[in-house]
Amino acid sequence: MKVKKILVSQPRPAGGDSPFCQLEEKYSVKVVFRPFIKTEVFTEKEFRAQKINIPDYTAVCFTSVKCIEYFFQMAKEMRVTVSDDMKYFCNSETIANYLQKFINYRKRKVFYGASGTIQDMMTTVTKHQDEKFLVVRPESNNDEIVSEFDKSGVNYKLAIMCRTVSNDFGPDEPFDYDMVLFFSPHGVEALKRNFPDWEQGERIVGCTGKLTAQAIRDAGLRLDIEAPSEKFPSLPQAVFDFIKENHKRK
């Protein structure tokens, strides 16, 4: 089956700046950004229940631009001044650059992984053993980063800023994709909840992250594209290679 329509289960990046958008131009495929999940921001009361005093920490870790927004929004609501000496660790350059909306961006206090993976980011984190890290993440999401911080030996605490809920499909919303790309186990759960009778057949399923890969297999689906891998450090690279080979076939 020739892949003509791809579902990227993430929001479309601001400005459309995504490697997946390049697929449309190069291979004439239709790429649809439609997240399976969405986030609900914690209230100040919910955050305070975690007994976190932001000024006690010297470094913050972000794995999404939304977490950056929620962190600074919460600090503002609580009338907390974030120190100019705070260091920031992100798992990609894109996320790191988003910090410019909130801080006086200086390279000496912003760090990110070159490949966009959590493992790459952790290589930098472990070089800063003296810092006290606040790891910002959604509720019940991304256990991979918890595992990596546990192994790192650094001093850290989780700061839950939001919860992940299903972004349900409407009754008249078509699900006619030749390829579906997942970015978290929650997305896989949402697919099964929205379309319990969905049969994969020849459709291609891809993902990023070990936990997401396992969730796909546990759901009884065939995993065709997985990243990061030894050959492809990122999901866009793996998808580009797959589409290139797929479109060679007649």
Question: Would you mind describing this structure in some detail?
Answer:
This protein has helices at 21-27, 44-48, 65-77, 93-98, 118-125, 143-152, 185-194, 210-218, 235-246, and strands at residues 5-8, 30-33, 37-41, 59-62, 87-90, 110-112, 132-139, 155-166, 179-182, 204-208, 225-227. The model has no long low-confidence stretch (mean pLDDT 91). The protein contains nine helices and eleven strands. Helix 3 links the parallel strand 4 (59-62) and strand 5. It is 32% helix and 22% strand. The protein has 250 residues and is of the alpha/beta class. The strands form two sheets. The chain has a six-stranded mixed β-sheet, with helices on both faces. Strands 2-1-9-10-11 form a five-stranded parallel β-sheet, sandwiched between helices.
Give the arrangement of secondary structure elements.
Elements: E1 5-8, H1 21-27, E2 30-33, E3 37-41, H2 44-48, E4 59-62, H3 65-77, E5 87-90, H4 93-98, E6 110-112, H5 118-125, E7 132-139, H6 143-152, E8 155-166, E9 179-182, H7 185-194, E10 204-208, H8 210-218, E11 225-227, H9 235-246
Parallel strand pairs: 1-2, 1-9, 4-5, 4-7, 5-6, 7-8, 9-10, 10-11
Antiparallel strand pairs: 3-8
Helix pairs in contact: 5-6, 7-8
